[in-house]
Every structure is written in C-alpha cells, then in structure tokens.
Amino acid sequence: MSSKDTYKTISEPSPEVLYKEKNSKFFGFAFPVTSEDEVKVYIEKLKKEHYLARHWCYAYQLGTSVIQYRANDDGEPNNSAGMPIYGQIQSFDLTNVLVVVVRYFGGVKLGVGGLISAYREAAKMALEESGIIEKTIDIHFRVTFDYKNMNKVMRIIKEKNLDIVSQKMEEDCQIEIATRKKNAEMIFNIFNTLFEVEIAEV
Q1: What is the pTM of this model?
Q2: Fewer CB in 10 Å around end: N or C, the chain?
Q3: pLDDT tens digits in sequence order for the chain, 202 residues long
C-alpha cells in the first residue's frame, strides 16, 4: 500500500483546443471521469458533434489504488494515437481523466512519426487548458452503534473532522464516514476500541 494519499485530476472539461499539421486538424479535449460509462458518454457526444471527422482517438486512466487505463487508436496505425495521448496523461501525473483527440484528415499523410507528435501535442494542449487539481484519496468506513452512543460517535467525527457520507437512523444507527488514507488506520482504531460501536471499511 503506497503511503501517498493524494492524486491529481482535472476539475472540469477542458475547452476545445486545435492543433494543425499539414492540413489535418486535431481537436483535443480532456474530461474528468470516474467510470467507463462516463467515458462512453463523452466519446458518443464528440462523435455526434464531429460526425465529419475521420478518427476519434482517446486514452483514459481511472482509479487511485487500482489503476485502469485504455488507449484507443481508432483506425490510426498501431500505437500512433492512443499511446501518445496516454503518455501525456502520465506525464501530467493524472488519473480519473479522459483525453480525446478528434482528427479531420487534410489529404496529406503524416506518417507514423507525424501522427505520434500531432496526437501528443493535441493531448498536451488539452491538458494544459484543463484546471488540474489535487484531491485526497479517502477511505470510507461504516460505523454502526445504538442511539445511546450517538454523542460519543458524533464527538469523534467532529474532533477528527471526518466527512459524513451518509447516515441511516433506524433501530440502530449507521453512519458512513470518509477520511484521508493516511489517517484511516488511526480512525479505525479509535472507533474499534469504543464499547458497543462497530466499524468496518466500506
């Protein structure tokens, strides 16, 4: 388990950027995403908006502890589009991000080297235009207890500045809390030593 408990991502979709190379136009876009479903939605949207384009190449990376990524050349020569785009996601050290480069063919072939540098440049421009932010990696716990222990639990949540994600107050009480990864063990131990209070990672 790495001790790093922050990651970098982008706060909102980037504005459209344009890179031109020998009459071909490369439009670059970056989007914050947290699932493959979101990736599909953005790509479909771009295909509708740029239906006359020739290629919609993209790469994304998801996750913080378990990383998922994909690079797609969408009909360009192998590794000439998706991987250069993914390389930019890595060089900016980002995750939970999708970068799409839409190409309009201008009639002049660029060759693999030309394609690699054009896709890389368009991806880089899109990421430079994005608001890059740092977020904490949070661990979620579910705390279960009786009403009579409510004050005890709430006091710790307040003292330790924990985020309440959700709460269910029925016969017994359940609160889901979130804390930074680096504090997770300490928080778990505090609740775990409390009498009549159960804690489990979600």
Answers
A1: 0.83
A2: N
A3: 456 889 999 999 999 999 999 999 999 999 999 999 999 999 999 999 999 999 999 999 999 988 999 999 999 999 999 999 999 999 999 999 999 999 999 999 999 999 999 999 999 999 999 999 999 999 999 999 999 999 999 999 999 999 999 999 888 899 999 999 999 999 999 999 999 999 999 9
